[in-house]
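Ticket 4471: requesting a sanity check on a complex prediction with sodium ion. Repro inputs:
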Amino acid sequence: MNVPEFVDAKAAGRPLTMLTAYDCLWASIMDEAGVDSILVGDSLSMVVQGHDTTLPVTLDQMIYHGEIVARSVKKALVIVDLPFMSYQVSSRQAVKNAGRIFKETGAGAVKLEGGVKQARTIEKLAECDLPVMAHVGMRPQSVRKLGKMSAIQRDEEQLLADAKAAESAGAFSIVLELIPADIAKTISEEISIPTIGIGAGSHCDGQVLVGPDMFGLSGFQPKFLKKYADVRKIALEATIEYIADVQSRKFPDESHSH
Ligand code: KIV
Ligand code: NA
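Returned structure tokens:
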């Protein structure tokens, strides 16, 4: 899956699927299953590194995980998030750091948070032929301003302006996070590039979930999340069984011995 194929899915009316992954184990499972795109999200900061927000993760850490995922994936479009403060300073900083992601990871695109306010930066990246996805609605990197990451964004005029600004600036797609379903529907109808929703209802051109959340690994359970498995429970039970087996000398048995 490359960027033009991803964009064309909208005109073809084919819903796009995206999940986040941060390592070769999960990325290869998702790729084998046939997901269209794998996002190395800066949610890495929370689900992998254990921070409370996405603010601490560094560009070098994003590149480290981005390279692993891009190398592990055969078919899906790999997108890497530009982390907090790696692009907000200037469009020059954004081009330099997005350039590092492309050179050092092999990813097919980058993502940044913002619409109107990031339009000039998106334009600069597009001028360099660096495919960029925008992210409007609830923007986790703006948590200090928004107050909390669960704050549903309802300003229709602002959201539409952000989406249109991102499209005009040259973004190839836009993530819509935590916005009312009817606003996501309007935006999806008013722009020609694919919208990828998370907590944005069923009218988006595609959907994205955080992998560890949808597998039931992280314990995060907001209203918008459908858990497709309870991997945490399976792994917990397996670990408890292993401990009991070793302690009771049930493992290893003859079949596991040389
Ligand atoms: O970092 C992330 O996981 C994301 C998705 C929620 C879209 O940006
Ligand atoms: Na992100």
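Notes from triage: Residues 230-258 form one domain. Leaving this open until the requester confirms.
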